[in-house]
Amino acid sequence: xxxxxxxxxxxxxxxxxxxxxxxxxxxxxxxxxxxxxxxxxxxxxxxxxxxxxxxxxxxxxxxxxxxxxxxxxxxxxxxxxxxxxxxxxxxxxxxxxxxxxxxxxxxxxxxxxxxxxxxxxxxxxxxxxxxxxxxxxxxxxxxxxxxxxxxxxxxxxxxxxxxxx
Amino acid sequence: xxxxxxxxxxxxxxxxxxxxxxxxxxxxxxxxxxxxxxxxxxxxxxxxxxxxxxxxxxxxxxxxxxxxxxxxxxxxxxxxxxxxxxxxxxxxxxxxxxxxxxxxxxxxxxxxxxxxxxxxxxxxxxxxxxxxxxxxxxxxxxxxxxxxxxxxxxxxxxxxxxxxxxxxxxxxxxxxxxxxxxxxxxxxxxxxxxxxxxxxxxxxxxxxxxxxxxxxxxxxxxxxxxxxxxxxxxxxxxxxxxxxxxxxxxxxxxxxxxxxxxxxxxxxxxxxxxxxxxxxxxxxxxxxxxxxxxxxxxxxxxxxxxxxxxxxxxxxxxxxxxxxxxxxxxxxxxxxxxxxxxxxxxxxxxxxxxxxxxxxxxxxxxxxxxxxxxxxxxxxxxxxxxxxxxxxxxxxxxxxxxxxxxxxxxxxxxxxxxxxxxxxxxxxxxxxxxxxxxxxxxxxxxxxxxxxxxxxxxxxxxxxxxxxxxxxxxxxxxxxxxxxxxxxxxxxxxxxxxxxxxxxxxxxxxxxxxxxxxxxxxxxxxxxxxxxxxxxxxxxxxxxxxxxxxxxxxxxxxxxxxxxxxxxxxxxxxxxxxxxxxxxxxxxxxxxxxxxxxxxxxxxxxxxxxxxxxxxxxxxxxxxxxxxxxxxxxxxxxxxxxxxxxxxxxxxxxxxxxxxxxxxxxxxxxxxxxxxxxxxxxxxxxxxxxxxxxxxxxxxxxxxxxxxxxxxxxxxxxxxxxxxxxxxxxxxxxxxxxxxxxxxxxxxxxxxxxxxxxxxxxxxxxxxx
Lengths: 165, 769
Ligand code: FES
Ligand code: FES
Description:
The structure holds 2 protein chains of 2 kinds. Chain A is an alpha+beta fold. Chain A has helices spanning 22-29, 86-93, 103-117, 121-129, 139-151, and strands spanning 2-7, 10-15, 48-51, 54-57, 70-72.
């Protein structure tokens, strides 16, 4: 089937089998390997991307379902000038990653909800509970999302600061 | 201004990390394995013909088909049959005796011995085609009775290998204890514990990509020991090691489970060489859950004796270890438990015996902690029972028996020589941090009120071993400067998430007195670093760190010698400071390393470095309350005090300690592999059946440390990162036992699921016993 995925603002016209999952289309057909597969059965959340702004498990969604949709992956998180997203800064500052395999999923699930978090720690807890990380024990991830949500609201396009160094 | 805390972060946070599955090699084929649905049986037929007709399938083979595979690549001319799985030579994890007569074929030929064992392999143009093909392979296996527990295996009523016992290895540590010692003791505790089988579960499953090119083979793998993999693969192919290059790109966690040469790796490499085409295998989670190596797996029987003052007299530990279907990777692993059976106490007599039993389950292999969690859990649970028996506070019983700081080095009855320690200091810090006395008061208050949820406090003191075993306590490291003045550090380690790229250059830079960003690390590539051991046994900081420090010091020394020669002065008159060489006498301006290298050529120092064993230690404490109606354990607090000697990067070590504690919680409360009587794991729903902790299961955890440098290296670092798996499970189970006051410790076996806890809550309590 011929479809077009719009990923991080770029159009990718693709010819895919109906059964092809979104994660494989992103990784193999678009060459965007930042989206990881940790379980391929919808539990771990490593494959989380945003489809029309909603966080989805890219291993449970077919590429054809996203024809014409706007997909955002970890590669599209930084600003156009390459300025890291507040979540990326905060994850680094809080040691919220070790091996980094689960990280794109946590970043994207947080990116999809960041503006609605405000400073509600309960909401952050719910987000972090959605995905699996085997390295960090989650607490640093929780702290990082809190930090990004409270310190660096994404709406305000802030210039680099020394936080996180 | 530094943008990222760790150098790794720049790519890992932006989607630019490169894990094996991310590498693009044109024409690469994907491998899919056809796996046995029965755990034990005789293979009657494997038919791949239908698979070969599937569009996009390049080939499909059973073990028998493979020997008829025509040779396409010249260099494989002598390679007839698929080589078997090599055995682990390191750290006595396997032995010649155990594997003799017990071949582990890379594809099962006549018999399958664990559920999921591969009976055929299919190569497709991509993973979809390969799996389409695999679905068309048919096989007939006549089932045999399956052996699922060590006890059943040891009975030998069903043999995994005809004519051979299922007991594949026996070992002891310490001397047998005479009966009179037990008879005369004031108190003797007897108990049985089960250390359940666990899945290490790194978020990236196993990966291998084999690319044949110009008579050589490049293998990319998420791996902890690239040099071992190179050697074992080369041997399997009958090649000199130099013809194989192993590269470890980003690796998504390992926890001990990615350090061997697995059957699938042998098959992939064999096919790549035979066909002369790149082949990769990217394991998926369901596959990993059935056929990746397991951790733990011990049935233990203990006796612990003390006099009326609570001084330990004797400790006996009998281990029946479930080592899975083949003895190749971990048959000797339970000796790590036996050698560490003494724990942190001055017990004069300790005797540990090991029986490693083959069962129809996937093979047991090191998983974070690797033998030390099992030792700690058995001893620390028994200490709590003993304290109760003697009417002593569990903290006090431990205080009376911990090896005092002045006794190091301490020779244990089980053959270890502990390097250094202040065990009591760690315990006191743990008690203080958790607020031990206040919790005891709270417990008393609740015990007086029948409607209050029971609350318990659990302690676990531990000592573990890091660095490796004799013969494997070294590694190779180098420091180089090229003409542009950049400094490159090399070592034999391989990171799977431990921040080597950040911490090792920082260490070298500190040692040389230069800016951190002038130093860059190269590791995980056997062409760039020809010799190395790898990252296992918590050794990277202890061994490779010390090796890098040593190489850096030698490097500065060599630089001084060169400058001395250049200036025609004695070497004592040249000073190295901050990357610049100064003539001591004439006070003239110094010469930067860059200029020196320009004038005299690249400077390279490569050294083999030998470490001693390190013995990290600590004390963990947990507070838990129990909902006895639901059988739910609520951990209210967990404190981990660890001593890893000199720490290279406190934030990195704390991060690992935290993550490790969460894995310890997993073992204590959630994780386990249920097997059916037919030996098939009951995990059809994947990670919904095997419960790794999520964020909702994490109690408040506090990580603290003490610092007792190791005398085993000038750097003084001991291993870090495994402590949580070692200390936390025992502390948590002790807290639950303390809350429920159960008389029979055997009733609480991990994982403490609601069912286990609900039943234990209704069992006789110790006052009533
Ligand atoms: S890979 Fe999609 S949820 Fe795990
Ligand atoms: S950082 Fe390794 S799994 Fe999360």
